[in-house]
Amino acid sequence: MVLLTGGGTGGHLFPALAVAEELRRRGHEVFYLGAQEGLEARLLPKTPLPHALIPAGKLDRSAFRPGEAWRLLQGLGVARAVLKARRPKAVLSTGGYAGFPGAFVAELQGVPVLLHEQNAKLGLAVKLLVPLSRGLALSVPLSLPPRLGAKARVVGYPVREVRYPKEEAKARLGFDPKKPLLLVLGGSQGSLELNEKLPPLLKPLGLPVLHQVGERWVERYRHLEEEAYRIRGFVEAPLAMSAADLLLARAGAGTLAEAAFHRLPALLFPLPQSLDGGAQRANARAYEKAGAARLGDYARLAQQVEAMLQNPEPYREAMGRLSPEGAAGRLADWLEEFL
């Protein structure tokens, strides 16, 4: 049996779910350990995966928070009971605060732990877990000290590997198949900054736009909707990215991996370092360095959009070189080495 753990946000949860699906397809028993406070608490009950939700205090780089520390201690105790009952032969942790308790207890018990880092910068949970881990799976190449580099392999970020013909996808979304389509994504929750700043800059361009504002912001921004500027709380990523010609988005690892799978050029607006420790900025720089994306500049947005739409092929080719196709299978292969 393989225990998968990680979550809190979709960036940590969705790759673990993709690997769980691959392992189940191969006939392995899997169990998911998530956090009571994470996105998985809402999504896991809708899946066939056996799972448990435990307390998991949020690890904070900048301050000691007694309440979170207490929840972390509680989570370690519950995780110990879960591992005793389930007796996994291997553990995959995709990080985040939800991915720490189960993986840490497993390491102390000598159970092989494989870590998956989604970003172009190691997260705090992964940094704490990696000394005792058996392996470190990376979504993109990272510069690591030799002791960590010896454990690391680049496997990519597991995504839903579904594509649609571009014209068909545009038609299904109600857009003219012959016109370029801009896709605005602010992550699974939406981005207040992108919701405020992009519409007044994009509307004068006269191009079709599909803007995911986030479910919580739909009514607030409904007044922006026009025939060519569609507002949605949530979009199906495979369909939307198949249809789009240019992505304007934050720089979350999952969004970028999906864009790479769909060969979709991107203008990126990463979160400030104070909000995520610099993970999104590191992601954006990695994709920009690879020639797959550019950092967005609100002051020059019209020129950036025009330039990328006029010459998309270099970006598409670079995105293709970063595509995570087959990542779930590569992670499953690695886990099978421990079984």
UniProtKB/TrEMBL annotation:
GO terms for biological process: carbohydrate metabolic process; cell division; cell wall organization; peptidoglycan biosynthetic process; regulation of cell shape. The gene is murG. The keyword Iron-sulfur does not apply. Residues 182-314 form the Glycosyl transferase family 28 C-terminal domain. Belongs to the glycosyltransferase 28 family. MurG subfamily. Its EC number is 2.4.1.227. Transmembrane segments: none annotated. Signal peptide: none annotated. GO terms for molecular function: UDP-N-acetyl-D-glucosamine:N-acetylmuramoyl-L-alanyl-D-glutamyl-meso-2,6-diaminopimelyl-D-alanyl-D-alanine-diphosphoundecaprenol 4-beta-N-acetylglucosaminlytransferase activity; undecaprenyldiphospho-muramoylpentapeptide beta-N-acetylglucosaminyltransferase activity. It catalyses: di-trans,octa-cis-undecaprenyl diphospho-N-acetyl-alpha-D-muramoyl-L-alanyl-D-glutamyl-meso-2,6-diaminopimeloyl-D-alanyl-D-alanine + UDP-N-acetyl-alpha-D-glucosamine = di-trans,octa-cis-undecaprenyl diphospho-[N-acetyl-alpha-D-glucosaminyl-(1->4)]-N-acetyl-alpha-D-muramoyl-L-alanyl-D-glutamyl-meso-2,6-diaminopimeloyl-D-alanyl-D-alanine + UDP + H(+). InterPro entries: GlcNAc_MurG, Glyco_trans_28_C, GlycoTrans_28_N. It is found in: Cell membrane. This is UDP-N-acetylglucosamine--N-acetylmuramyl-(pentapeptide) pyrophosphoryl-undecaprenol N-acetylglucosamine transferase. Pathway: Cell wall biogenesis; peptidoglycan biosynthesis. The keyword Membrane applies. GO terms for cellular component: plasma membrane. Cell wall formation. Catalyzes the transfer of a GlcNAc subunit on undecaprenyl-pyrophosphoryl-MurNAc-pentapeptide (lipid intermediate I) to form undecaprenyl-pyrophosphoryl-MurNAc-(pentapeptide)GlcNAc (lipid intermediate II). Its main location: membrane. It is a peripheral membrane protein. UDP-N-acetyl-alpha-D-glucosamine binds at residues 9-11, 119, 160, 188, 280. Residues 2-130 form the Glycosyltransferase family 28 N-terminal domain. It comes from Thermus arciformis.
